Amino acid sequence: MKPDIDFEPAVGRYLRLNIAGEPHRVYVETAGQGVPLLCLHTAGADTRQYRALQNDAGILERFQVIAFDLPWHGKSSPPAGWHQCRYRLTTQGYEAAVLAVADALALARPLVMGCSIGGRMVLHLALSHPDRFGGAIGLQSGAHVDPYYDLEWLNRPDVHGGEVCAGIVSGLIGPGSPEVHRWETLWHYMQSGPGVFQGDLHFYTADGDIREKAAAIDTRRCPLWLLTGEYDYSCTPEDTAHLGERIAGARWQIMEGMGHFPMSEDPDRFLRYLRPVLEEAAAGRAARLD
Q1: DSSP SS3 for 9
Q2: Contact between residue 130 and residue 218 where contact means Cβ atoms under 8 Å apart
Q3: Which among 61, 175, 201, 205 is most buried, taking Cβ atoms within 10 Å?
Q4: What are the tens digits of pLDDT across the range 257-280?
């Protein structure tokens, strides 16, 4: 008698593609069917943060949840010759990666959702490529943040990089988040490659500043939803309120009890906020495709 095998729905594969003319090997996970939902992870982390969405039967009935590890992250390797350069994420490079993956997978006007640096990137995508996406959902989406600690601690030979990265972000998790999810979220950070978290923060604290441009986002072409945890001091509720009020037509909400990593730190609570947004986004996308 064969034993029962309890596989989760997500299927992972390696995608070979060029990003800005450079060959890459990018790890992609997909689950479900229907409306494509492209998910962008946080700085220094990877697609495992979206495990709850890719295991939710109700969401998978209507949505194809797609998540990929940025180059240098998770199971995606850095490009050849990586040891001869310093990794720094830029707006141009980040946009190129998202668009290259969407094109390689032949996604037609997908919804795009990102958290933290991913939340910042959805703002850039909604501004610069509004007709490529059926809607944008920003989690912990701030237009800018000034560094509030010395970033050099994230990549020093006398410091354990993974542990210091996890230590720095640990305070960003909501105080009521279940312990099992809190520690799994931190484990993802403990596994980050040397200098990767620091390199991502170049985009988050400097290059990706969109304060002067955000008000130009046209939500008639790319609808925008913003969801932010009340305990986040990196992208604060005030930051989200200010951004939401500046962008005409943006819809925003503060999630009670949650911090900076809603989809991984407290998935059950997060999905209660996300489900109605997904339904609204899918309906709006369908209307614009007709």
Answers
A1: coil
A2: yes
A3: 201
A4: 999 999 999 999 999 999 999 999
